[in-house]
Every structure is written in C-alpha cells, then in structure tokens.
Amino acid sequence: MLAFTGSPASAASTSRRDACFTGACGSATVTWQNHYSAYVRMSVADTDCDGHAAEIRIIAHQIHLGTDQYNWYGPWHVNNSGCHGGYESFNGPFNGGDPLLGFKVEVCVKDTSRCVTSTEMGNIY
Fold it and tell me: Per the confidence metrics, is the pTM higher than 0.85?
C-alpha cells in the first residue's frame, strides 16, 4: 500500500503536520492527488541523546463502503543516526483501495512508550 519510492505527481494542494517532543521530532507533508491517493514526505530526528532511535509513520484515515471509517497504520521508518545525526527523510506515494479522508503523522522514541500523534490533515478531494 505504501512504498517510499518515486516522485510526486502534480496536485492542487499540500498539507503539513509536525509531531515533536523531547526525544523525537518529525513532520509529514502530503501532496493530495485525488480521493484515493497522495504523495507523502516524512522526516524524523532524534532530539535526545538517550540511546533510543526516533521513528515515524503515517496513519491513513479511510472509509469503506461509504460508512465504515477506519485507520490504516503505515510501517515504521526509523532514524538510527542518533541525536547528532539530523533528520532522515522517507518519501513515496500512498495509494489506498478505499477513499482517503485524511492523514496523521505519529512520531515515537523507538522501544519506549513515548509517542506523539499530530492532528489530522483532511483530504481536499
């Protein structure tokens, strides 16, 4: 469903959300393509020298058969560069089988319960 390769198609609008706290900071920028797809750019950095990596994933808010809403949780993308390694980027298209209502971005400190989830970016289509 979500492969981070390729380049973005042209679109009418983009949305961005950040999720930052002591330990990790990340963001996702979404270029909306239509009701079913978008191009996603994410980056995450380790902001605390605690020996734990920073990780990020996208959460897709979708609807099945026009009434059953659900969340699809994307794979974790990990920045193992440490607290002085800066941001690592992960980019690629999202093509959902069901209509896409929006996205959230979730950032965590790997192997801990420390996580932050952004507010939703609603699909413009």
Answer: yes
Torsion of CA 46, 31, 35, 68, to 10 degrees: 10
Measured CA angle at 38 (ends 87, 113), to 5 deg: 45
Report residue 83 as tokens. Answer: 């607290």
Least confident of 11-25, 44-58, 62-76: 11-25
Separation between Cα atoms, residue 118 and residue 79, nearest integer Å: 19
d(CA 82, CA 97): 36
Q: CA triplet 96, 14, 104: central angle to 5 degrees? A: 55
Q: Which residues contact 33 (CB under 8 A, 6 or more apart)?
A: 9, 11, 39
Q: Kindly report each contact of residues 15-18 with a partner whose C-beta sits within 8 Å and lies 24 or more positions away, as own/partner.
A: 15/103, 15/121, 15/122, 15/124, 16/121, 17/103, 17/104, 17/105, 17/118, 17/119, 17/121, 18/105, 18/118
* Residue 63: predicted pLDDT: 97
- Cα–Cα distance for residue pair 58/10, rounded to 1 Å: 21
